Amino acid sequence: IIRTIAGDICAALAHCHGHGIVHGDVKPGNLLVSYSGIVRLCDFGLSQRTGPDHDQNNDTTLPVPPRGLCTLYYRPPEVLLGTTEVHTSMDMYSAGTVVAELLTGRVLFAGRNVLDQICQVCNVLGTPDVSTWPEAMTLPDYSKLNFTPKKRQRWE
């Protein structure tokens, strides 16, 4: 069942991304399941259009909207660290945390605030550094934090 749900989530995002839309708030509350078991992605309130027709730079990134992006538990690390761009990969990160929640029965990263959320992510995925995620060093809020080096945990 989880494989089918995960497949439906990925298919919905592939459809959105294929049509130049970043959903921006993938979470369990924005997934509807029909009586026949079909999963639908809903609530496009934080979505944005992207792609060549909508971005003068012919890139697939957009500025983060002033109202924010994504519910805290499902927010990608680059958003937590202050990125100024929106990209389809953010939806995929959020989808991954939703699937992890389906597999474990609990929220993967349940931070109380942005700082706690960053700590929770680093405790599991490891501390970002030049070798694992060089782009992190360029994010606006990265230099505001003093990360204690942690290695990525193995999933059992």
Report on the architecture of this protein.
There is one protein chain. With 156 residues, the chain is an alpha+beta fold. The chain has a single domain, classed as Transferase(Phosphotransferase) domain 1 (Transferase(Phosphotransferase), domain 1, Orthogonal Bundle), CATH 1.10.510. It has a two-stranded antiparallel sheet with strand order 1-4. The chain has a two-stranded antiparallel sheet with strand order 2-3. A two-stranded antiparallel sheet has the order 5-6. Strand 2 and strand 3 form a beta hairpin. Helix 1 packs antiparallel against helix 3. About 3% of the residues have low confidence.
The CATH class is identified as: Mainly Alpha
Mean of the pLDDT scores? 87
The total of helices stands at: 4
Q: How helix-rich are the residues, as a percent range?
A: 25-40%
Which geometry do the CA atoms define? globular
Count of the domains? 1
CATH topology annotation: Transferase(Phosphotransferase), domain 1
**Which structural class is indicated by helix and strand composition?**
alpha+beta
Detail the poorly predicted runs.
55-59
Alpha carbon gyration radius: 16 Å
Distance between the termini: 20 Å
Strand order of the largest sheet: 1-4
- The tally of beta strands, per DSSP, is 6
Beta-strand content: 5-15%
Strand count, sense and closure of the main sheet?
A: 2 strands, antiparallel
CATH homologous superfamily label: Transferase(Phosphotransferase) domain 1
What's the short version?
This protein has 156 residues and is of the alpha+beta class.
